[in-house]
């Protein structure tokens, strides 16, 4: 592990020089630099990496509650928990990093369940794949929301478009603020913007959340004009919470592919 602005992190470089950086807190991807040296994720310069607040940017792991849709802390505890870095194949054709968070029922009275989560971050050809897996290690059923709250660097959100979330190939314009849960959308999605062209593919997750706060929102850890730089497109399972019987597993992944 290395220290990034006072926070423990792990870095992985792929065969073509692409690099991903992940904080142990939250197993939060905070940087993905492609093979040409371009940063593909947005991170606010006003958001400290060493806590205690969640980091504004990269890919916060949302689990087991989305936003304020339940009694827990906003977006659940995963994004501020310390995850453990597990040994994994960092050298193969798809080098990867694996992180684990074990949760015991007594730690969170508002969500009293035993479970083990892993986040696998893999550098794939011209892409980044993130896979969240959840194992119910307890002896009662549990249910959860999950999302990979991906902050994509777009340069200028008002000049960005997203296809795949609306029916009939309709293009979603991002000239206005948006905070929307698109339910049961299989994808893939195509993001086109002044700074990026990405195709987003998800598996296991059912929904997508698209968020940009626009210029009027007051967000303390975003600089003036910062809103325009990013669009959050999140692979999510929120509309219908995931139910896991004792011993059962679930997994969902989101892949960001550089489009040419
Ligand atoms: O994913 C969309 C959302 O739930 C928005 O409503 C917005 O508030 C955003 O997440 C950020 O939440 P946060 O708790 O990180 O400030």
Automatic annotation (TrEMBL):
InterPro entries: Aldose_1/G6P_1-epimerase (IPR008183), G6P_1-epimerase (IPR025532), Gal_mutarotase_sf_dom (IPR011013), GH-type_carb-bd (IPR014718). The keyword Isomerase applies. Keywords: Isomerase. It comes from the Bacteria. The keyword Isomerase applies. Its EC number is 5.1.3.15. It catalyses: alpha-D-glucose 6-phosphate = beta-D-glucose 6-phosphate. PANTHER family: APOSPORY-ASSOCIATED PROTEIN C-RELATED (PTHR11122), GLUCOSE-6-PHOSPHATE 1-EPIMERASE (PTHR11122:SF13). Belongs to the glucose-6-phosphate 1-epimerase family. This is Putative glucose-6-phosphate 1-epimerase. It comes from Rhodoferax mekongensis.
């Amino acid at each position: 592990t290395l220290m990034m602005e006072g926070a423990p992190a792990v870095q992985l470089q792929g065969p073509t020089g692409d690099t991903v950086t992940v904080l142990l807190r939250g197993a939060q991807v905070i940087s993905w630099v492609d093979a040409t040296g371009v940063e593909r994720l947005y991170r606010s310069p006003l958001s400290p990496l060493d806590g205690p607040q969640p980091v504004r940017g990269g890919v916060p792991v949302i689990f087991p509650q989305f936003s304020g849709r339940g009694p827990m802390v906003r977006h659940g505890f995963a994004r501020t928990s310390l995850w453990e870095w597990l040994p994994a194949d960092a050298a193969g054709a798809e080098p990867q990093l694996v992180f684990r968070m074990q949760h015991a029922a007594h730690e969170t009275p508002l969500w009293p369940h035993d479970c083990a989560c892993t986040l696998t971050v893999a550098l794939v050809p011209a892409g980044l794949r993130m896979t969240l897996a959840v194992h119910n290690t307890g002896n009662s059923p549990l249910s959860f929301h999950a999302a990979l709250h991906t902050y994509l660097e777009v340069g200028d959100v008002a000049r960005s478009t997203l296809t795949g979330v609306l029916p009939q190939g309709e293009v979603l314009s991002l000239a206005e603020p948006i905070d929307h849960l698109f339910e049961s959308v299989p994808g893939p999605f195509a993001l086109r913007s002044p700074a990026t062209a990405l195709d987003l593919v998800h598996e296991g997750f059912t929904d997508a959340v698209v968020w940009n706060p626009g210029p009027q929102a007051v967000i303390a850890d975003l600089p003036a004009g910062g809103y325009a730089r990013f669009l959050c497109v999140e692979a999510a399972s929120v509309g219908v919470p995931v139910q896991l019987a004792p011993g059962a597993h679930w997994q969902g992944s989101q892949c960001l592919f550089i489009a040419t």
